[in-house]
Design brief:
Elements: H1 2-21, H2 31-35, E1 41-44, E2 49-52, E3 61-65, E4 70-78, E5 84-90, E6 104-108
Antiparallel strand pairs: 1-4, 2-3, 4-5, 5-6
């Protein structure tokens, strides 16, 4: 009887304490795999460019980007053989910059 009580006590203790050490989402992934994808393309502007709200020349111009601005390419949109648009995100410090600052838009390549 004492043997069964001891087994049950150990089983209940393990069942209550072991899940505390497990991650909430199951198997943990490394930080590099989740937060920092390796397939991002970055470009640095060699001339001034305008950042548009959508990929059309008559779209609202959000910002004029200066020479040397670093951009991350999110995707591209090919309108025709001679016209390609790229969805970009400006490199910024999310903790120090203005939270209302425009960070994403389209540029014509």
């Amino acid at each position: 009887m004492i043997n069964n009580v001891l087994k049950n006590f150990c089983l209940i203790t393990f069942a209550l304490i072991a899940p505390i050490t497990l991650p909430a989402g199951g198997i943990q992934r490394s930080l590099n795999q989740n937060k920092f994808p390796n397939n991002t393309n970055e470009i640095i502007l060699s001339s001034k460019a305008s950042l548009y709200s959508y990929p059309e020349i008559y779209a609202k111009e959000l910002l004029v980007l200066d020479v040397g601005t670093t951009l991350s390419v999110l995707r591209s949109w090919k309108v025709s053989k001679s016209e390609t648009w790229v969805r970009v995100e400006l490199a910024s410090n999310k903790f120090l910059d203005d939270p209302n600052m425009i960070l994403k838009g389209w540029i014509k390549m």
